[in-house]
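Run log // design_07
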């Protein structure tokens, strides 16, 4: 069997998270960074077996946060008996909404030609605004029962597990939860 280290990737290094917005001809990255933790998704060792040159990119549109997953690699391990490469997209489907898995070209087109992006406002009501260092900041508040709020939370909550030690996504579809009691601030 092949050397396991040769076919293993550090998940924290292989995963790149970016926020993007429309550019002059194609979407541009505003920020790119690695997660702090990947063990909730890829296991305690934070290791992904079955790839060489692995690069997983999760991009979020900066305004309303739809995510997009892209998985690239130089080589993939050929299955030997019961030993096979981890199905990364299948693993991430437990953590991300279905819209995350459209092609990068489809995602790019949506971001580039989203006419609502420039004037987008968070759902809810504006509760405070201020300026600092020449920039304007706003704080918005809304109830979690609002479908637009739930959509934003659903799109972004993978970041809870990637950046908060022991953090878990909130169960938005749990009938025992009263979504009306939760207020969300943006």
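design_07 sequence
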């Amino acid at each position: 069997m092949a050397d396991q280290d040769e076919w293993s990737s550090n998940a924290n290094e292989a995963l790149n998270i970016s926020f993007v917005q429309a550019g002059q001809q194609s979407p541009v990255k505003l920020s790119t960074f690695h997660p702090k933790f990947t063990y909730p998704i890829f296991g305690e060792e934070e290791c992904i077996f079955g790839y060489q040159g692995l690069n997983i990119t999760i991009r979020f549109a900066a305004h309303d946060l739809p995510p997009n997953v892209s998985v690239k690699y130089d080589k993939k391990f050929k299955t030997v008996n019961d030993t096979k490469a981890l199905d990364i997209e299948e693993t991430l489907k437990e953590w991300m909404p279905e819209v995350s898995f459209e092609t990068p070209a489809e995602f790019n087109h949506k971001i580039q030609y989203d006419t609502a992006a420039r004037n987008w406002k968070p759902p809810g009501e504006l509760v405070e605004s201020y300026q600092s260092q020449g920039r304007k900041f706003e704080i918005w508040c809304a109830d979690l029962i609002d479908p637009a709020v739930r959509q934003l939370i659903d799109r972004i909550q993978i970041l809870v597990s990637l950046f908060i030690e022991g953090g878990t996504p909130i169960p938005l579809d749990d009938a025992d939860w009263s979504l009306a009691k939760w207020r969300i601030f943006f």
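The radius of gyration is 19 Å.
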